Amino acid sequence: MKKTILIYFLTITILFAIEVPKSTVFDKRVVYTDFNKDDVFQIYAKNGYTTVIQFADDERILDMASGFSNGWDFQDRRNFIFIKPKAYESTFAVDEYGETVKKTTIIEPTPIEWKTNLIVLTNKREYIFNLDLNVEKNSFFKFTFNYPLEKLKKEDIKQQLAKAESEKQDIQVELNRTAVPRNWDYYMNINPESESIAPSFAYDDGLFTYLGFDNTKDMPSIFLYENEKESILNTHVKKEGNYDVLVIQKTAKQMILRSGKRIIGILNKSFGVNPLEDFKNTNSPNIERVLNGK
């Protein structure tokens, strides 16, 4: 008994997505589309007309290629490409006997034969276009790209920078909190001709030392004097009323102010008399100072 074997052929249809741009409400020949690196973008051109493609302002065309360059004219200017279909000359033809003869023929654009693609490389992106010569639909006069993902990235960066700047200002406000003086028991030994670097006041809050200078004084460098040796101290400056206040990030028994040959010795007579109960390293309860280690 013969067996009949049935073979079924499955037809698979592959669909290719073409990104057709959306026209404006003012004129259907002016269109916009969002850029997607995996899309092929549709261009409808018309014989006798030019279509301009506009890329991002910071883009420049590096190279482009088409499958039918004889039938299309491409010109790039900065971030623009101008496209128009064109006729071309053929120097060979077939006579009535079927033989090829040398003869110049002008071949005019037709919708079927002028279908092709265009690849564009810029300094930032790659673009793929499908070019159609269409007599039934409106041709495109201007084709403009939008870049929503890049816009979102820029907005996100802008928001992050604004947030960082706001946090920086908040931290500065916290760091500039007015200190509560705990100790005013400071004395100075002013060397000859050193009055111009002498502070107008000195106090500490148990954590930092504050030296105030009015606008008639020069602000000196500050050094810790300990065991007959000098070492530089970390400082920053803040404004308090009419005074520039040199904030020394430490309390110490002896310090030295220097500016050229001008020298002043600072003595804290109450150093260690009234220590803080709880350790802290800033005047703000919301800010902690840490040292960056290498």
Salient structural properties:
disordered N terminus, mainly beta, signal, 6-stranded mixed beta sheet, P-type type IV conjugative transfer system translocation pore protein TrbG/VirB9, VirB9, 1 helix, 10% helix, VirB9/CagX/TrbG_C_sf, 5-stranded mixed beta sheet, VirB9/CagX/TrbG_C, 294 residues
3D structure, described in words:
The longest helix is centred in the middle third of the chain and has 28 residues, at 148-175. The protein starts with 17 loop residues before the first strand and ends in a 26-residue tail after the last strand. It is built from one helix and 22 strands. The chain has one helix spanning 148-175; strands spanning 18-19, 22-23, 30-34, 40-45, 51-54, 61-66, 72-77, 80-85, 88-94, 100-107, 116-122, 126-133, 142-146, 186-190, 201-204, 209-213, 221-226, 229-232, 235-240, 243-248, 254-259, 262-268. The strands form five sheets. It has a six-stranded mixed β-sheet, with no helix packed on it. A five-stranded mixed β-sheet has the order 1-4-12-11-6, with no helix packed on it. A five-stranded antiparallel β-sheet has the order 14-22-21-17-18, with no helix packed on it. The chain has 294 residues and is mainly beta.
